[in-house]
Amino acid sequence: GGYAGRLNKNCTWLCCAPHGNMGLFYAWDAALRYDHGTVRVNLLLNRASPWLDVDSYLPYEGKIVLKNKQAKEAFVRIPLWVDASLVQAKIGNRQVQNAWFDRYLRFEGLGPDDIVTIEFPLVEKTETWRVKDHVKETVYTLRMKGNTLVEISPPLHPCLYGRRGKYLANEAPMRKVTRYVSEKVLQW
């Protein structure tokens, strides 16, 4: 299936042909990879797995928590906008020395039930983009928090990006959920 939306009689869109579902699956699947005791966290998204769970506080806070289950080693990709010298990591309550492999932070010697916490300053910036079509040029001001667009002016459309102000909060909203982990690794 594809995706369509209608917020009101003035706002309808259709995007992501049937392959959109596959694209979402591939992004979700590649967010975390496991191979022979090593987990590689490629996207800082909330993700449950048989090997470890990722709790992401982005875009509210620069904080990631890994709850280990089976991994002996983990590599966590830190975004380019993060200053690597300001990243702090702990295993349990113990501060650990950062071991970098390019943009990946490495944690070795992990045991079951270890909790790894990674914290870094969340960068806010404003960018100006000029978009010229065949009639006129429009200048957009975009406010970003990490990788997340939190405000755009002038608005593209009343329906799009209109309720993103909640991401300006500096504390992640928390709620209790039950996570499901499939017994089988899906192959699409």
Q: Give helix and strand order, one letter per element, not per position.
A: EEHEEEEEEEEEEEEE
Radius of gyration: 19 Å
Instruction: Give a short account of the largest sheet.
Output: 5 strands, mixed
Are there runs of 5+ residues with pLDDT below 50, and where?
none
Structural class: mainly beta
The strand count comes to 15
The end-to-end distance, rounded to whole angstroms, is 15 Å
Strand adjacency order, main sheet = 3-4-7-11-10
Q: Tell me, what's the shape? A: globular
Mean pLDDT: 88
- What is the beta-strand fraction? 35-45%
Number of helices: 1
How helix-rich are the residues, as a percent range? Answer: under 10%
SSE map:
Layout: E1 3-8, E2 11-15, H1 19-30, E3 32-35, E4 38-41, E5 52-56, E6 63-68, E7 73-77, E8 88-91, E9 94-96, E10 99-101, E11 104-108, E12 115-119, E13 124-132, E14 137-145, E15 148-153
Keywords:
15 strands; mainly beta; five-stranded mixed sheet; five-stranded antiparallel sheet; about 190 residues
